[in-house]
Each structure stands twice: as C-alpha cells, then as structure tokens.
Write a structure and sequence with these properties.
Blueprint lengths: L2 H11 L6 E5 L9 H11 L4 H4 L5 E5 L4 H11 L9 E6 L6 H12 L5 E6 L7 H4 L3 E4 L5 H10 L4 H10 L4 H9 L1 H18 L8 H4 L3 H23 L12 H10 L2 H16 L7 H13 L3
Parallel strand pairs: 1-4, 1-5, 2-3, 3-4
Helix pairs in contact: 1-2, 4-5, 7-8, 8-9, 9-10, 10-12, 12-13, 12-14, 14-15
C-alpha cells in the first residue's frame, strides 16, 4: 500500500477524509495506482483491488467524457449505494473536461451526497481553479509551497524571498532552488512569462523565441513558466480567492488577460502550451517550437 493510501486510511478512521482529492504527478493512474488503492480503501476499508471493478459503487471515467455522462453520474449519486457504505467517483485526466462537463461536475463537487468521494487526476496547471478550490490537491513526488520555502531557508534564503520563490516555482523544488541560485534562470522566467502576455496583448510573436531556446532544459523550463502564468489568468478569471497566483509580479498583465479572454479560449491556450513541451526533440530546432507556440497562442479562431 502506498504512503498516500495509508494516510487516507488514517483520515477515514478519524473521520477527517475530504470529499474530493486531485492527484497530480506520476503514480496516480494505472492499474494498482494510488487512485485505485485509495478508492479500494474508501469502499472496503482496505486495499482489495480485485474487487474494485466488480461493485457498482465504483464509477470511473476519463476527462474526455461527454456532459451527458457527467449528468448520468449526478443522477446515480442521488440513489442509495449498492453494496458498500460509500461511493467513489474517479475522473482521470480531469484537465481534459470541456466547459459543459466542468459546469456539471462543479455542481456535484459543491454538494456531494454523504458518503460520496471524488478522486481526480490531471495536470495541475491545466485544471481549472474552480475545481482545484473544491478538492484537496495531492502532489505525488512534488512539494508544497511550505516545504519548498523551508528548503530555501535552509539554503540561506530570507523568509520573504523563500515564500516568493516557492510560488514562482509552481510546486517544483528544483526550479525554486535554481531560481534562488541562478539569476539567469530568473531572467528566463521573466522573459517567458513576458512573452506570453506580450502575445496575448497583440505584441510581436517571435521576439523571445531565441532567448527561450538556448537548450532543451531552458526550453522545458520556459514552457513550464508560461503554463504557470496561464494558470494565473485562469485563477483570476474564476475569481477564486482560496488559491494564490504563482506570479504575483505579473498581476496587472494577469488581470488584463483575464478580462479579455474567456474560459474556453484560456483552456485552449493551456492545452497548446502543454503540447509544446512534447515537441522538444533533438530533431526540431528549439526556437521553431516557440515560434509555433506563439502563433498557436495568438490564434483566436
């Protein structure tokens, strides 16, 4: 049994389990993964994976599911459980839900029936803040902002600086340490986020491509920072105050973009940013990846 599943079991025994969890990082999905272990504990009180798919109180679907399927589940939750005291709804790749499906799911998360638990998985920076604010995020293999801040303080950072870098690193301890030690890496972050907001504001598309494409590592980091800024725009657009933005130093630009763009367009932009990371290859010129990315971001069709 994984450590996460053990903690969930202790929470259940002490009646402290949340009604919803978002699992991010490696190891959440797949047969016998963390989600299936936690679902088994919620249903049976122990890990019995062989029973999991035999009970109707276990409902699993993917983020590509249509809104009608989400509504069917909502109707199902209004009924009594079948063979267990609890019911578990698993939605993998929740960042892929379309706008109608998200709205239907939010209603379930706001008022879940007693004994109903939601176990979600997905790419955290692409999951809408309206969903994240209603569940507890479990970062598999990642660190909380508090843990990152504490690690930076041990390296010699001041309290305010460590808190700032913990946010700017968007959950990556490695990125936080590099931001603390490497001024060039901090400049890469500013350039990447500045490029995003410049394009969203109608600026030139290709001015930053070469600066962001020094090498594959820099390119991946730049895309990571661009995605974190897109997340902040979604956060601002949703009006969610329980989550902190990763890049408060770009607050003005974030607010302007949130005012100008709709949720559908922002979700599309987040998707093309994530897709850009998959194109990084020795066979493709890195600056070309950013040229294409900025065109994709600017496209409003």
């Amino acid at each position: 049994m994984s450590g996460i599943a053990e903690k969930l079991k202790r929470s259940l025994l002490s009646s402290r389990a949340m009604h919803g969890y978002l699992f991010t990082g490696a190891g959440a999905d797949g047969e016998g993964g963390v989600i299936e272990q936690c679902a088994s504990i919620l249903l049976f009180g122990c890990v019995e994976l062989e029973r999991l798919h035999t009970v109707p109180d276990y409902i699993a679907l993917d983020g590509t599911a249509k809104v009608d399927r989400i509504r069917e589940i909502k109707s199902e939750l209004a009924k009594r459980t079948y063979s267990t005291d609890n019911r578990v709804v698993v939605i993998r790749n929740v960042h892929l839900l379309n706008e109608h499906s998200i709205n239907a799911m939010l209603k379930m998360l706001e008022e879940p029936p007693e004994g109903t638990y939601f176990l979600l998985s997905g790419i955290e920076l692409q999951v809408l803040p309206t969903i994240r604010s209603r569940v507890m995020t479990v970062r598999l293999g990642e660190r909380s902002a508090e843990e990152i801040s504490a690690a930076l303080i041990r390296l010699g950072a001041g309290g305010a600086e460590s808190e700032r870098l913990a946010l700017e690193s968007a959950g990556s301890l490695d990125a936080a340490i590099r931001l603390y030690n490497d001024k060039g890496f901090e400049k890469l972050r500013s350039t990447a986020i500045g490029a995003l907001f410049s394009v969203l504001g109608g600026g030139k598309l290709f001015d930053a491509s070469d600066a962001l494409a020094a090498d594959a590592e820099s390119a991946r980091a730049a895309i990571f920072f661009i995605l974190s800024a897109c997340h902040d725009v979604l956060l601002k657009k949703s009006g969610c105050h329980s989550l902190k933005p990763f890049n408060p130093d770009f607050g003005v630009e974030t607010a302007k973009a949130a005012s100008a763009l709709g949720f559908h367009e922002l979700a599309r932009i987040a998707s093309v940013i994530s897709a850009a990371a998959q194109r990084i290859s020795p066979l493709i010129k890195l600056s070309r990846i950013f040229d294409v990315l900025m065109i994709d971001i600017a496209y409003t069709g």
